[in-house]
Write a structure and sequence with these properties.
seven-stranded mixed sheet, Rossmann fold, about 180 residues, two-stranded antiparallel ribbon, alpha/beta
Length: about 180
């Protein structure tokens, strides 16, 4: 990850990992399967990382300007704590999440890829742009992933947060040696 500010101090505070969907959790592609059906392709590694984050005690969520049954299904499969779709103006939704969860900006990691994400990214304590984000998003993000959206960017961010929070050895213990 490209870091414009020290990662460890920001990542240590994170309690909620919130992200856009199209271009972050997916590669941004949308396919139409019929007159009223659309789908997305999600990276399985990002899904594993989100499950690990949840098990490690982090909250996760999506905040998307679009909706769709495929996105809602994936978010529910991953047991995300916050699912906000069709949010054209993301900042008021973000502010409601903070109030309801009793969080402050510094406790949020927000991962975005396009201009509509900038208002939330400007507030979040750990603002991340994916490698193939709009140039303005990459310029303004404190952190930029090496992976592209939908291609492991979410995994990269979650791994970095867990390592900075000193939880990596515990996570590895769940998998190496068959620990539970």
């Amino acid at each position: 990850m490209i870091c414009r500010v020290p990662l460890r101090s920001r990542a240590r505070r994170v309690a909620l990992i919130l992200m856009d969907v199209d271009g972050v959790l997916t590669d941004g592609g949308i396919f139409y399967a019929g007159p009223s059906q659309e789908g997305r392709i999600f990276d399985a590694k990002d899904g594993v990382a989100l499950a690990v984050a949840r098990r490690a005690g982090l909250l996760t969520g999506v905040l998307s300007g679009r909706g769709g049954a495929a996105v809602r299904r994936r978010a529910r499969e991953l047991r995300m704590d916050e699912i906000h779709l069709d949010a054209r103006n993301k900042l008021p939704v973000y502010e409601r999440i903070l109030r309801r969860r009793r969080l402050i900006d510094s406790e949020v990691c927000y991962i975005g890829d396009d201009l509509v994400d900038l208002p939330v990214m400007e507030r979040a304590g750990m603002a991340v742009g994916v490698a193939d984000a709009h140039p303005e998003v990459r310029r303004r993000a404190a952190f930029v992933t090496r992976a592209r959206g939908g291609r492991g960017a979410v995994r990269e961010v979650i791994d970095a947060i867990l390592q900075a929070q000193g939880r990596w050895a515990t996570v590895m213990g769940w998998f190496a040696g068959g620990g539970s």
